[in-house]
Every structure is written in structure tokens, then in C-alpha cells.
């Protein structure tokens, strides 16, 4: 147990407190919209990997997240690592495009695994990596071992491995309503990756563009999270009209950029309203009850009112 503690293994794994795995789906879903295939995949793999169901000599789990930008690949990785109580190590694979970057990759990975042998490892944009880098990762996926520059094997069986890619995003977007979209997507993956590499993953999750109802749910969720942050930081109580949820969902929907315009619009509307009120009216006191309503969807005009105080009309151009 002492050696596991030194290797930064969470207490719940040492003590076999599997309530963490039981609560994981609800914990992630409370902050994540859509992408059932990927969410169910990481939950399933977490249960197998940490619950005693894995008997082969491989990493705890390995999964590829593939799909359009802004659909939640990195965000789900963050929620997973937080839910499991593990550190998240992110590797930007665009920096390892050329063969001359191989030494740097080996050095960074060696340092990471030495310090964090038990962590969620996220290799972002894996399709950009040099073929030599992919070869090293092949062994990590296949054996749970990473070979350093001297071919010395390093333990990597405590890693939850996630690799992300936008490969096939155009196929997914173009054929999102077709029954054979998964088949077309897999063919696109085979154009970029060797079958032997893809076969080393426990699962490959396809991320889809968000639907109209999901954009509304996303607006509600992230407004709630923003309000929770204001409550925790300033003890402000924020309520937002439903019409604003619909406006944000309608105006920010994007097949190209996914959820990012939605998050930017939420931040712009809420942050600008609070900031303008404090500058033009009065500082908001602790315990303030704030209401935000939509005055004009066409002009994107809003009114922020403070109970027992003043109100401010403002316009947002996003």
C-alpha cells in the first residue's frame, strides 16, 4: 500500500472503494451533454480496469475519441480524470510530427511515466504524430509497456489511455443522419491509421455533432455551472429566463465548431451583464439576487435586474 501511495494511486483504488465507479456515470453526466457512446465507453472501461475485470498485461484501459472539433473529446477526458481522482497528462501530438522530434517525445514520456505511472494520459490529435511515435505507442497499447530511448521498458499498466483525433470528422458531419455513418467513419480511420494500431484499442468512440435539443440542454447546463460559480465565488444568486436558453442554442449551433460558440456566447452574455452593471450602476453585494431576461432576440438585448436594486439594459454582439 505504501508503494502504491508513493506512485500517486488514489486511496479509493488502494482501499477498493468501488462506490467511485458506481457514482462515475452520474458525476460525469451532470456536467456533460450527449455523446452516449463515448461516455458509456469510458464508464465501462473504468469498471473493468479498476474493478478487477482486467487480467491481461495492458494499460488499465485504452480508447480512441474520434470526431469533429468542439464535441467534447477533451472535456470528457477532464471529467473522467476528475471523477477517478487521477491526474490528467495531456500530450499535444502536433509537436511530434517529424522524425527529429522522436527524442523529445521519448524524453517527455519517460519523465511523465516516472512521475505519474497512474494517470489519465490524453494524446491529443494522435493523427498528427510521426509514424515512429505511433510505433512506440503501439507497444504501450499492446503490452502496457513504454520503451525509452535505451529500449528500457517502463511500467505503463496504471495508465488510462485516451487518444483523440478529428480524422473522419467530415464523413461524420456529412453522413450524420445515415444508418451507415459508423461504417463510413471506420473506413476514414483506416485511411490514416494501420488496422493493427486501431485494433490495439479497447474501444473506438465516434463523437457526433450535437442535435438541436442537445444545444438547448447544453445552454441550460453551462448557464447553471456559470451560476454555480458565481454563487461559490461571490454568493450571488442568478436566475436566467428560458428564452435565453433557446436563443443561445439557436444562435450558437455550429457543425464546424461544436460547443465552443455556445460556451463563448454564454460567457459573453452573463459576464458582460454583470460587469456592465457593476461599472455603470453599483457593485453587486454578497447575497445579491440577480435576474437576467431577454428583451429582444433579434437585437440580442438583455436586461439584468437586481432585487432591491436597479436594472441595466445592454446589448451583446456575438
UniProtKB/TrEMBL annotation:
The molecular function terms of the Gene Ontology recorded here are:
ATP binding; ATP hydrolysis activity
The record's Pfam families line, in alphabetical order, gives: AAA_2 (PF07724)
Any idea which UniProt keywords this protein has? ATP-binding, Nucleotide-binding
Q: Which GO terms describe its biological process?
A: cellular response to heat
Q: One Gene Ontology cellular component annotation? A: cytoplasm
Residue ranges annotated for the AAA+ ATPase domain, each copy included: 59-203
Q: Which SMART domains match?
A: AAA (SM00382)
Name used for this protein in its record? AAA+ ATPase domain-containing protein
Amino acid at each position: 500500500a505504501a508503494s502504491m501511495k508513493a506512485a500517486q494511486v488514489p486511496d479509493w483504488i488502494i482501499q477498493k472503494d468501488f462506490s467511485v465507479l458506481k457514482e462515475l456515470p452520474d458525476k460525469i453526466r451532470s456536467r456533460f451533454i450527449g455523446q452516449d457512446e463515448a461516455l458509456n465507453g469510458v464508464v465501462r472501461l473504468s469498471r473493468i480496469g479498476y474493478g478487477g475485470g482486467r487480467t491481461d498485461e495492458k494499460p488499465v484501459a485504452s480508447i480512441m475519441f474520434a470526431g469533429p472539433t468542439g464535441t467534447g473529446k477533451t472535456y470528457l477526458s477532464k471529467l473522467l480524470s476528475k471523477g477517478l481522482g487521477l491526474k490528467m497528462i495531456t500530450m499535444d501530438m502536433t509537436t511530434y510530427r517529424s522524425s527529429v522530434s522522436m527524442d523529445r517525445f521519448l524524453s517527455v514520456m519517460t519523465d511523465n511515466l516516472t512521475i505519474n505511472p497512474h494517470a489519465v494520459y490524453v494524446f491529443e490529435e494522435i493523427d498528427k504524430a510521426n509514424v515512429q511515435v505511433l510505433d512506440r505507442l503501439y507497444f504501450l497499447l499492446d503490452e502496457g509497456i513504454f520503451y525509452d530511448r535505451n529500449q528500457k521498458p517502463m511500467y505503463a499498466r496504471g495508465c488510462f489511455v485516451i487518444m483523440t483525433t478529428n480524422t473522419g470528422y467530415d464523413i461524420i458531419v456529412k453522413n450524420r443522419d445515415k444508418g451507415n455513418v459508423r461504417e463510413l467513419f471506420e473506413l476514414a480511420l483506416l485511411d490514416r491509421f494501420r488496422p493493427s494500431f486501431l485494433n490495439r484499442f479497447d474501444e473506438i468512440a465516434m463523437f457526433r455533432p450535437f442535435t438541436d435539443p442537445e444545444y438547448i440542454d447544453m445552454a441550460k447546463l453551462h448557464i447553471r455551472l456559470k451560476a454555480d460559480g458565481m454563487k461559490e465565488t461571490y454568493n450571488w444568486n442568478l436566475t436566467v429566463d428560458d428564452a435565453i436558453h433557446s436563443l443561445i442554442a439557436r444562435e450558437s449551433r455550429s457543425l464546424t465548431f461544436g460547443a465552443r460558440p455556445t460556451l463563448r456566447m454564454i460567457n459573453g452574455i452573463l459576464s458582460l451583464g454583470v460587469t456592465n452593471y457593476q461599472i455603470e450602476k453599483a457593485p453587486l453585494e454578497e447575497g445579491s439576487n440577480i435576474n437576467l431576461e431577454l428583451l429582444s432576440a433579434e437585437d440580442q438585448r438583455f436586461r439584468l435586474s437586481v432585487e432591491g436594486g436597479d436594472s441595466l439594459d445592454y446589448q451583446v454582439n456575438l
